[in-house]
Design brief:
heterodimer, A: Ubiquitin-like (UB roll), Rossmann fold, 6-stranded mixed β-sheet, B: alpha+beta, 4-stranded mixed β-sheet
Amino acid sequence: MPRITIDGTVYEFEGRPKLLQFCLDHGIELPHFCYHPALSIPANCRQCLVEVGMPVIDRETGKPKRDENGQPVIQFMPKLQTSCSLDMADGMVVKTHRTSEKVARAQRDNLEFLLINHPLDCPICDQAGKCPLQIQAYKYGPEGSRFEFLKVHKPKRVKLGPRVMLDAERCINCTRCVRFTDEISKSHQLTIIERGVKNYPITPPGVEFDDPYSMNVIDLCPVGALTSIDARFKARPWEMSATPSITITNAKGSNCYYWVRDNLIVEITARANAAVNGYWLPDEDRLDYHRFNENRPDGPEVRRDGRLVRVSWEEAYDRAVELLAGIDGRRILFLGSAYATVEDNYLLKRLAEALGADTPVYIPHIEPGHGDGWLRTDDRTPNAQGCQRLGILPVDEALVRSRLESGEIQAIYVLEDDPVGSGLFTAEALADIPVILHYYNTTNQTLVVADVALPAATVVETVGTYVNCDGHAQRVRPAKAIRTVNRVLMQEIGKSRLDQHGTPYDRWYNEKHQVDCKPSWEILPEVAERLGHPLRYKGPKYIMQEIAETIPAFAGATYEAMGLEGVRLAEIGAEV
Amino acid sequence: MADFIKKPVVPLPELHPEPQIPADQLFFTEEEKAKIARFKEQYLEPAGAVMKTLWLAQEKFGFLPPEVLQLVADELGIPYAQVYGVATFYTQYYKEKKGKYVLDVCTCFTCQVCGGYDILHYLEEKLGIHKGETTPDGLFTLQEVECLGACGSAPVLQVSNGPYVHNLTPEKVDQLLEDLKQGKLPPFVSLTLPQDEAELGGNRRSDAEAVESYRTPPIAHHTR
């Protein structure tokens, strides 16, 4: 196997990897700006320079020459090489800044050049704190600048499109954004204009940067030149904690980070997962966080004298049971939800089985023409596939409507959905029968007919599993705290210190903006138990374990296996 | 900061530019299309022909407003943004309407040392315009450009992407403007670098003789 020596350590490699990617894969940090694994390699930032040499081959014997100590003679290339574009070769010897003063000097001087026209507005820059230029200038850069002249001025605060703001002075012309629009999103909306010190990326005249994936350039930008208009000046990176999770805007379940401050979701950024979304996230997913912050309910309510009245959770459970107890189980319609987790739907199905009701059905939310065959789908729910794998199928609208009209359905139990808002039933049709509703937002139109309204935890507050449209099962973790104490959520929520349950550095830690809601996997067992059907689990992890063991469509989807990247489940048709 | 308060967000410039070439004139003839097709054949990718095609378009339309860039992009089948990037890179491509004669005064290192800025400012005063502007009669546009590659005869200016005027002095500039006003373009001039300073009395400027044909043979003597 070919070998390469990097800073005196020998590594074996296969194929012809690029040196920079190989180093990054092996934990050898090299500073770089323009290189991105998903994009072409222009090698224009000149930051990843290394010294590279090859053993000298004796032309007569065809063997490497050796010096008097028996060591191979290495001939170094006269100039430093950009490691990002360098193909590795057998016997290559590489010196990084750790062993070569020349390389360290080159990297330092290159940073001095990059910073010559870079404005020192880090204190007001959104990127400060997560800025590769800032970090690498601290680590590898010079102590100061010798440039004491006027900096070049370029357009600032240019609104490139509805979602992206450009500050051309901060740009270091790495061209990542241009390459993204050329190679990944293929919208070709950006280009570098002018030349020399004056150049910067912008759209050509008459073109707006309205690419549905435009905000990815904000993640790509290694400086603060491209910032999000939505998140601008809202919070600094160190004021937020980031929780790895998935977005629920559509059925793709793209991986993301939820950035939280004071229990509000401030920003959603992409998280790399080669099996689902690569490095990218559509704009609609990034901007779809208001549903977690706004119009959230405040505790459970029951209907008394025609009005919803705030009660304790116990009273709400009791009322729900009181309404359900008198009704034959077969006459209760259980509506599952493609918004809810697999665990929640499974518990609902178990409850329905215990009461002798039909298997729950779910309301599909399909928006034809919305998908683009990439990261946006027609299906606007995150877990339709998970429901189907559980045997919860799309509702037959005509059938349930006629059953409701004929009086066959005498109660409805809705899990985290909105049958009135989605047009399945009219509010009048449900007025006379008990409706028990788990819901996320007070904009839910079924609330006007709900007899028991139970606020449910959203994807950023719960623990659970979602299955995307390709059958990729992924876990979600709580990003923010809810008001009620739940041991499982407390264990799962991200903590900055392992020895303490939350510190002020965990941005869910304070009590602001906590919503009085509960995950459905906590509500459903409470209701089931009061109806005389014990449904106790130690937590969603154990529910999922049972699902993975008993339902073949979920084989292998345990929490341990899913981890951060998820598990690709077998095709549904495969086991049939 | 005050500027920021006044203009917290700068909109994109020219989001809906007014077309400057009438729509009925905005096309390539069959002959030009055939030419562009030949350009394309010369390169591996159609994008390679962008510079020649832009040049052709500039000769046809006089300058390159956005709608012409779009026309070039469509003709070559490459992104509009890419054509725009190329066009803005070169000062020789005119992105807006220029005067009849464009005076590109070099102010790069050598010309700067030899008085390039003096010539530029002299022209600014004489024409009553600033660099980058066009005289009201539409005759002259004055531009400051980077190295024209004639450092040996600095300071230098170029007229309308064509002939150079070497070893500029205010008198030469006056003469040039007079000639241009009468529609007389300066001739092509080839200059050799002074070989021996002592022989030329230490004057590197004016003793070099100008001819209107290539004096330096294209291939060096010793390589023949």
